[in-house]
Amino acid sequence: MTAKLTRALAAAGRLWLLALLVGAWELAARSAADDFFPPPSKIVKAMHEVWFSGPAGQAFLTDEAFDDFGPSLAHLFTGWAIASVAGVVLGLLIGRSAIAGAVLEPLLQFGRSIPPPTLIPFLIAVLELGTELQVTTIVYGVIWPVLLNTIDGVRSVDRLQLETAKVFGITGALRLRRVILPSAAPKIFAGLRVSLGFALILMVISELVGSTTGIGVRLTTAQQSFHMDQMWGGIVLLGVLGCLFNLVFHLVEHRVLAWHAGLRRNTG
Questions:
Q1: In whole angstroms, what is the distance from residue 19 CA to residue 89 CA?
Q2: Cβ within 8 Å of residue 129, ≥6 positions away
Q3: Where would I find the ABC transmembrane type-1 domain in this sequence (predicted)?
Q4: Spatial CA neighbour of 202 closest among 114, 140, 121
């Protein structure tokens, strides 16, 4: 009961803080009367007019919402899914091989150090503008947290667990599924969570170049036409999406790794 009350009070405190910040923003923006910094009320109105004033049959989404959200989210989740699968698979292979880890370590550190946006000029030259360019940019940028966390998770598997599994004849794919993956899962999920945030950032960056649809294009168009309320609406929308993604992922992670949290409580 005490834990539930503490969580409820913490949630209420966060809501009050958010309301206070929004109120301060509203007052400051109205006092400044600067077109480049519209108040939240004007931003919300612009978001409603552009994206959320559609018919009930379309969940109140406008045609512009489908044009902006559809391509952006498709690119984001496609790139994130590809990077997640590739990162986990390669991480398992490299993490279980000391030779591969020693040989590839410098290459991995070099690759992760290259900022993904700097590759966009090269990708424009070798790839078609649009989905191919955007998904490739996202994949390259978000694979590193998944890959490196998976390698670290696999290497940190308790050797006693591996030896015990060997004694009981648990080898190969069965050992991977029953011992290695469960032990490495917390670090793998940590990498997936970080990479999802990176995917949202790279989604916008990749849409600023060579794209005709998407939230990033909406931001650029609004800025060029001096519709600052719509531009800020896009920024706020991205922030809301990031919070929603993090919340949903946290719920999934909590459900999947419930056994791990229970184990820590029992051994703590």
A1: 44
A2: 210, 211
A3: 69-253
A4: 140
Q: CA-CA distances (angstroms) from residue 90 to 28, 48, 133, 144?
A: 50, 44, 23, 11
Contact 180, 154 (CB under 8 A): yes
Q: What token pair was written down for 128?
A: 């078609």
Mean of the per-residue pLDDT values of the chain: 89
| Banded pLDDT at 251 (limits 50, 70, 90) | very high
As a whole number of angstroms, the distance between CA 220 and CA 212 comes to 10
Model confidence at 260: pLDDT above 80? no
- Domain 38-267 is in which class? mainly alpha
CA 179, CA 170: separation in Å to the nearest integer?
9
Please state, in angstroms and rounded to a whole number, the distance separating the CA atoms of residues 49 and 261: 44
